[in-house]
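Entry type: protein chain
Record version: 2
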Amino acid sequence: MTDLAGVRSAVHETCLRMVADGLVIGSAGNISLRLDADRFVVTAAGIPYHALTAEDHSVARTADGSWEGRCPPTSELALHLGVMRAMPEVGAIVHTHSRYAAAFAVARLGLPFICNENIATRSERVLVTAYAPPGSVDLADQTIAALRRQPGSRAVLLANHGVVAVAPTLEEAYVVAQSVEWTAEICHLARTLLAAGTGEHVLDRAVQDAIGRNYGVVIGKPPRRP
């Protein structure tokens, strides 16, 4: 039998961790974690995380988006539902509003591969989606499209919004979200320091691949055109 209590507890603890780490404020952001092949636990809507308990987080069905629980699910249910349906390899989604990454999203600037920490995203570049309203099916579609532009990548920036990090496990997805924020801050600082020059020095594809081999992972890149 699936451990519903354990999954809810993991989601709730990660919500509190997001707040403590400054990746969200109040009730911003949301998390989902697969419960089994047909269901996932997703954060409750609109209530500061410290005022919730693990049992408040909803259980949603992947097939139709129906849910059960004592609190309604996040207003971003469509985002979690769309990714969970389209990408069965994804076990967890962490959506944050961390400030440096959000600033890049507002500026519609992707994040280049600049240092070892980028390895968590599995992305040559953390791409920015086309704009879509929060809570919409279109937001899910834009997220999936951006992830698929670099097969295997684990993060995108939502235009004028925040970060979506995906991975097989919740811990991995959380580290991806942290990595995106770290990279955004370092990239911002590098561009500030080198304002009179070209900004950050991006590592080329060969170096990215060498770093990937060192960690035993593949860096997602756009497919080469024939």
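Comment: The chain has a mean pLDDT of 94.
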